[in-house]
Amino acid sequence: MHKILVLTDLHITPPGELIIGLDPAERLSRVLDAMRAAHADADHLLILGDLVHYGTAEEYARLRGLLRDLPWPTTFMMGNHDDRDTFCATFPRAGLDANGFVQSRITLPHAHILCLDTLAPDAKPRHSGFLCADRMDWLRTELARAPGTPKIVALHHPPFVTGFDGMDRIGLVNRAEVIETLQACADVRLVIAGHIHRTIMASAGGLPMAVFKSPCHQMPLQLGAGTSGLSIDESGAYGLLLVGPDGDICVHTEDVAAHKAAILDDIASK
User: Fold this and answer.
1) Which of 12, 112, 143, 156 could bridge to 49 as Cys pair (CB 3.0-4.6 Å)?
2) What is the pTM of this model?
3) Domain of 161?
4) Which residues pair with 74 in a beta bridge?
């Protein structure tokens, strides 16, 4: 089994600036410590975008310090709070496609992970995601590569309606095109995303989808809310994918509370 760690929506701010009273850097550090303690043997770390809050060089420099000396190879994606040029200046080794988008393929022995860049500063409404013709061409090319190899598709904006009206309003603009493209490839086994700050499991176009929580602040379960600004102080979290030799995938999520809970071994209670 190959173990892939997943983070999304880090929202690192300048030092001293909080989000709903929380320090995103402190929350991320707490989650990273938990990940190191439990999963130092993981094969890869995916970070699905919204790496920082304002897209500034100061924030990306702070993020780089927080991620120093990680035990896993790390792949970054862009979210609506990111700035592509500023990110690339701070992380010059990030995977770029031929058109300069932060898109890359992770090749596992038994699966490919396709990492997409949905950042679209000119999309309407603001903070929406979009995959332009060049990025869609890249996706189609990668989906066609190595027929029969299971594919996991990762992106920031979920390509489906979540029921959070405010967040769906700033969702993936061309999600119907993306779903149609993914449906045309029999190798797609799972789509993973962030953006919502909540654990969500879904099926869209017959494809399994998973959305992961943030290490920092979460979305309260207020379906139909017309705003995208609702946040709640719940435990930070990370995700974990187990990819088997037959291409089967198991999805886990783990909350990281402020205080470590004791793990009791009581066979009689199971």
Assistant:
1) 156
2) 0.95
3) 2-269
4) 45
**Separation in Å, CA 77 to CA 47, 156, 264:** 6, 7, 38
Please name every residue paired with 46 in a beta bridge, in sequence order, or none if there are none: 6, 75
* Beta partners for residue 201, in sequence order: 210
Judge whether 115 and 106 are in contact, CB under 8 Å. yes
The CA distance from 105 to 192, in Å, is 14
Whether residue 174 contacts residue 238, with contact meaning beta carbons closer than 8 Å, is answered with no
Domain count, the chain: 1
* Angstrom distance (rounded) from CA 161 to CA 182: 16
CA angle 219, 104, 161 (to 5 degrees): 30
d(CA 16, CA 25): 10
CATH number at residue 53: 3.60.21.10
Question: Alpha-carbon distance 186 to 60, whole Å?
Answer: 38
Residue pLDDT, tens place only, 211-260: 999 999 999 999 988 898 899 999 999 999 999 998 899 999 999 986 55
pLDDT digits (tens, 9 = 90+) for 86-145: 999 999 989 899 999 999 999 999 999 999 999 999 999 999 999 999 999 999 999 999
